[in-house]
Amino acid sequence: MDAKALKFLATPEKGEVSALLVRPEDATHLLVLGHGASTNMRHATMQTIADRLAKVGIGTFRYNFPYSEHGKGRDAQPVCTATVRSAVVAAHEAAPDLPLLAGGHSFGGRMTSTAASESPIDGARGLVFFSFPLHLAGKPETKRAEHLASVTVPMLFLSGSRDELADLALLRPVCAKLGDRATLHVLDTADHGYKILKKSRTSAEDVFDEMARVLRDWARNRV
Question: Structure pTM?
Answer without folding.
Answer: 0.96
